[in-house]
Amino acid sequence: MCFTFSFENKASQSIKDYCSSRGNVVINTQLDSDYPLIGGLSHPFIPIVKADRVEACQWGFIPPFANGDNYKEFQNLTLNSRSESVFDKPSFRHSIMESRGVVVMDGFYEWRHYNKNTYPYYIFPKGDDVFYVGCIYNAWVNRLTGEVIDSFSIITTNANSLMERIHNTKKRMPLILNKGEIDYWMDSKLERDDIERLMKPFDDEKMSAYSIKKINVSKDEGLSSLQIKSPFSYTELELLDSF
Predict the structure, then answer these.
(1) What are the pLDDT digits (tens) for 95-151?
(2) How confident is residue 56, by pLDDT bands cut at 50, 70 and 90?
(3) β-bridge mates for residue 4, sequence order
C-alpha cells in the first residue's frame, strides 16, 4: 500500500513546471513547504494536480454517499484504492471515470517484513526526477453543515519485482505514471479500457530504494529530510539479500 511519502522541493518545482508548460493550469494552493515525511493516517491536505488546476485535497477519500456525521469513518479505509476493484466499488466508481488526478512526490516509504520485524525503505525515482502517482478525488458536500471537503485516494497496483522484494507481504505499489501519460490519465473522455491500460506496475528499472532507520510516522513527521532519509543498513537484511 502507499500510506507515507515525501513532498519536497523537487515535487513542488515539478508541479510549477507542469503548470507553466500548460499555461492554463491554475495553482490554488501553497507549494513552497517541504514535507519529507507525510503520513496518510493524519489525513493531511496535499496538492493534487487536476486537469485545469492544482488544489489541496485531504488524503482519505470521502465518497458521495457519506453522511455528515460519519464521513471520517471512511477516510482511514480509503487512503488507497485498488486498481482491480476501483471501477466496481460504490465509493470510487464515479471518480475513476470522471475525477482522476496526480499526486507528485519525491519518493515514498514502505516496510519490509522479515522474522516478525519490519524494516522501512525509502523508494525514489532514478535520476533527478519525481514520481507522478495516479489518484482519484471527490468534492464532498456535508449536508449537515454545507462544508465542502475535497479528498483523494491513491490508486495501487500489483508490485513490480523491486516492490515485491520490499513490500513482501501484500506486494502492492502506488500507480506510478510516466510523465508523458499525465495529461492522458486526466482526460475525462477516456473509456474504462483506456484507463485500465494505464494501471500497471511501474518499470522497476526506473526506481531505486534503500533501507533507512526505523521511523514512527506519528512522531517523526517533524524531522528533517536528512534525519529521515539517510541510508541505514540492517545486518539481517544484508544476509537475507545475499542468498
Answers:
(1) 999 999 999 999 999 999 999 999 999 999 999 899 999 999 999 999 889 999 999
(2) very high
(3) 39
- 72-91 tens-digit pLDDT: 999 999 999 999 999 999 99
Which of 174, 198, 165, 201 is CA-nearest to residue 82? 174
Domains and CATH numbers, the chain: 4-242 (3.90.1680.10)
Cα–Cα distance, 112 to 163 (Å, whole number) = 9
The β-bridge relationship of strands 53-59 and 26-27 is parallel
Angstrom CA distances, 151 to 1, 61, 95, 103, stand at 18, 5, 11, 12
Cα–Cα distance between 31 and 34 in angstroms, integer? 8
Phi first, then psi: give them for residue 179, nearest 5 degrees: -55, -40
C-alpha–C-alpha distance, residues 136 and 120, integer Å: 26
Nearest to 43 by CA among 242, 211, 192, 217: 217
> 173 with 82: CB under 8 angstroms?
no
Compute the distance between CA of residue 63 and CA of residue 99 in angstroms, rounded to an integer: 12
Phi, psi of 33 (to 5 degrees): -95, 145
- Tell me, yes or no, if the pTM score tops 0.90: yes
Residue 28 sits at φ, ψ, to 5 deg, of -110, 25
